[in-house]
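Final report, Chapter 2: Outcomes

The project's central promise was a pipeline that accepts a single protein chain and returns its three-dimensional structure in a standardized token representation, suitable for archiving and comparison. That pipeline is now operational. To close this chapter, we reproduce one record exactly as it appears in the project archive, with the input sequence first and the structure output second.
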Amino acid sequence: MMNYPTDIIKFIVLTCCFFFGSLVYAQQPNDCQFAVTVCGNSDFSLNVNGIGTQELNNSNTCGSQENNSIWLEVNIATAGTLAFTLTPSSTSISEDYDFFIFGPNVNCGQLGQAIRCSTTNPAAANQGNNRTGLNSTDPDPDEGPGADGDSFVSDIDVLAGESYFIVIDRPIGNSPFSLEWTGTATFPEAPSNPITANTISTSLPSIDVCDATAPFDDNITEFDFTTLTQDIINGESDVMVTYHKSESDANININALGSIFNNTSSNETIYIRVENLTTGCFIINDVDINVSALTNFNPTTDYNICDDDLDGDDQNGISTFDFNIKSQEILDGIVGVNYAISYHLSQANAESSTAALPLSYSNTSPTPTEIFVRIQDVDSGCIGFTYFIITVDPKPIANDVSLLQCDEDGIPEGFTTFNITQAANEITEGDPDSSIEYYLSLLDAENQENAIDGSSFDNFFNPQIIYTRVTNNTTSCVNFSEISLEVSTTATNNASIQLCDTDGTEDGFMEFNLGTVAGTIFPNTIEDFVLVFYETYEDALLETNPISGTFTNTIPYNQTIYGRMENENACYGISEIELTVFKLPNIETTFETQYCLNFFPETITLNGGVIDDIPNNYYYEWSTGEDTSTIDINAPGTYTVRVTNTNGCFKDRTITVSPSNIATVTNIEVVDATQNNSITIFVSGEGDYEYALDDINGPYQSSTTFENVEPGLYTVYIKDKNDCGITDALVSVIGFPKFFTPNDDTVNDFWQVKGISSLFQENSSILIFDRYGKLLIELDPLSVGWDGTFNGEQMPTSDYWFKVKLQDGRTFTNHFSLKR
């Protein structure tokens, strides 16, 4: 049974008093016969839920009935006004409360018509709030339904000794309500109560207890209010005390909890109803109960230890745990407490405080194992729980290994450089979660002092022992092993690979197949021996940065790399491998030239195309079968030669000899006697030709047509671009001068058709007329022309006409000017 403080027992706060007469108190006050009698003028809060018997039909002018109702009976002690304000706990405008008042001095079943009622819907009436009631300012005795009114009606003038029934109904909504009395009339005060003398304050201190009922961490426990009830009654026979979950339940005396009950949440408010059975009046107060588990301790962490050989076996997962360490962890920084701490293998044992484990506990089965901790405050009795996992972590693998290293520095004294880290996989069997440190003594390894660099260690004894400290990176467990170092004095052969620079880029770099030298380095076949290649001797010693068996040299033309012959990290020998890239002959690989067919049987000379060197330093293989540096040929074709240097590297040269020849003129097409005379030449032949007009030295043009050619006689020159020769041809361009000036200045003194010669149009007819058609002269085509006279007389300045019939049959008629 719980004991409660005196200040909790000493309470009674008058909230509101209701009289039930001799009726059963657990009845809901939904009907008139169960109406709650109001004592005193205190305000109160209630809820409504459902109806009993429908008693409002045809009994009011507000057009409504019961939906969710409660009945109150009010007795008037002193005359005045009866008024109140009803406020829903929800401020939503849709929350709608109505009320109806019957009286004075009527009986249930004979209520008559309501003298006041309000069924206004606050939302429909566009009110600013959802309150309702009686007041002194509203003149109307009734309002509603729906949008009618403002929810308030006029107060009632009442006399002492009168009684009234008030029905409060909620047609819409679900919230409780509070009632504030605002009139001047008073109600009978509650009669004196035997325990009112103990009233101290209007608020009670909370009841704070520990969770004392298993399970002890759900904050649910048993409350026994028997002693509290007895103290409240204080020996009075007409007082009854009940406990409730809500104020509404306490007001209407339903759903009593009983003096012994379990809370349903860690923090609850309990409403206490103390009723005077003689007067029917009661008082209500509330008290907060708070239930909590013991939490004033530190949470535990998991407990890991490494396997040891105290039981004779360091690999069986059995070891001893000191739970005093966990007790210190639980209490660290927490002072002034008196806790009893015990350790158990199950939650049930911890809750029942049975089968506690010894503080020095040796596991008997493989871990991980969950340990449950019971923590009890000896002073308060509060109990808390925690748990942690114990685990025996295995030691990491640490194998003893041997390393055999080569001594290839030229001094076979048995001292060299070791890369001890090459043995790491063998020591830990490839465990990726292990790290290794290297020491000169086991004591240093155990104390983790004076570690050495395992990646580059120079031995000073042969053989020599190195000690390892292997640590598991996750568990921090350690183990130790030995590495035996020994220097080998065996040797392997050196080798070389020579390649011509034939990869298409003559830069001194080539891809070498290093595997081809294995037989040279180690001619005797021994199983399980491997040959690994390195760029430097140091890398070969320390077995770092190995290179692929297909290797492109990193130093042009000449580089030495190293091959390490070993068997499971035992070095048999380190060989030098010289890589050489020979240059190819520097030649012009392609060449084009021409042979003039018109020079046959003359010859031209072809050479091997060697650049910046003496041709005699090379060997030649011509496609003609010759092996000299040059050959003579007199026929077009494709000739090849392979040029090889003294290192056996070669390049091939291809010479294309194209035919060429002087041109053969097949036709010359002349467009003359026009504003734009032109000459077009047509030729045949194997050459590549260019053309010049009237000058063998040019300029030459690639076009076969000459435009805007003045009338006259011309020589056309056709030149082979390959210097096979020049062909020429005569061309006549006929034309007719527009004027002439026979003034003996030797310039234009005669008029004659141009382009006529003994080779061109010599049998042409030329007639000249004056402007009246008189024939003045018939010119000889081969003469210098007309001098501007007729019968010895000079003809005047004027236009004259000519008619020319060329030998080729063409006829032209036109005029020209004589100017003096």
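Archive annotation: Residues 102 and 111 are 6 Å apart (CA to CA).
This record, like all others produced under the grant, will remain available to the consortium after the project formally closes.
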